[in-house]
Amino acid sequence: EAGVTQSPTHLIKTRGQQATLRCSPISGHTSVYWYQQALGLGLQFLLWYDEGEERNRGNFPPRFSGRQFPNYSSELNVNALELEDSALYLCASSSQGNIQYFGAGTRLSVL
Amino acid sequence: AQRVTQPEKLLSVFKGAPVELKCNYSYSGSPELFWYVQYSRQRLQLLLRHISRESIKGFTADLNKGETSFHLKKPFAQEEDSAMYYCALHSGGYQKVTFGTGTKLQVIP
């Protein structure tokens, strides 16, 4: 069974551009979570989607947004990129029981 | 607001020594607590959760509501235990999941 897949693996952008990150959950999982892992800050919760709806979001500005598609895959969009957005972005999925299964991440570099 | 604190960024122990990775949380209700682990070049994965009350790879963790702690313990460290460990709290429903900043465990041969 395929795990959580994220694409692209690496993404290089310049300040002010937009970035789109993608996540495909494990088959049968309806929840997708997004986290930002910046150096020295651990995992910061970004967004939680379940059944196509945004269920919760962390303390991030509105330029961080996303959506979940009918097939439960998800997109994270970051607009007006800033240097401090450079980080590893992790996606996780879950079904019931709150156990999260993580992808390998997308490393976003903002120059 | 819920918070998870892992006071140690790095914990170095010798092989065969006991290990205790500390996790303290702040939350007024009844949280669900987890330990996740990330081995070198692998994905973050669940190690154990408090409601399971099981031992995984020799690790155990007991929820102490009085001390608001969920420390991870192992009586005898192995080299393969070297990894990054994250404590996480989920307060139920669609409340957000809060992770600690992680502790890097280094087991010295």
Structure description:
The complex is a heterodimer of chains A (111) and B (109). By secondary structure, chain A is mostly beta strands. Chain A has one domain (5-96): Immunoglobulins (Immunoglobulin-like, Sandwich), CATH 2.60.40. Chain A is 0% helix and 54% strand. Chain A is built from no helices and eleven strands. Chain A has strands at residues 5-7, 10-13, 19-24, 31-38, 42-50, 53-57, 64-68, 74-78, 87-94, 101-102, 106-110. In chain A, strands 2, 4, 5, 6, 9, 10 and 11 form a seven-stranded mixed β-sheet that branches. With 109 residues, chain B is mostly beta strands. Chain B has a single domain (3-108), classed as Sandwich (Immunoglobulin-like), CATH 2.60.40. Chain B contains no helices and eleven strands. In chain B, the strands form three sheets. In chain B, strands 2, 5, 6, 9, 10 and 11 form a six-stranded mixed β-sheet that branches. A three-stranded antiparallel β-sheet of chain B has the order 3-8-7, with no helix packed on it. In chain B, strand 5 (32-38) and strand 6 (45-49) form a beta hairpin. The radius of gyration of chain B is 13 Å and the shape is globular. Chains A and B meet through strand 5, strand 6 and strand 10 of A and strand 5, strand 6 and strand 10 of B.
Sum up the structure in keywords.
A: 111 residues; mainly beta; Immunoglobulin-like; 7-stranded mixed β-sheet; 4-stranded antiparallel β-sheet; 54% strand; B: 109 residues; globular
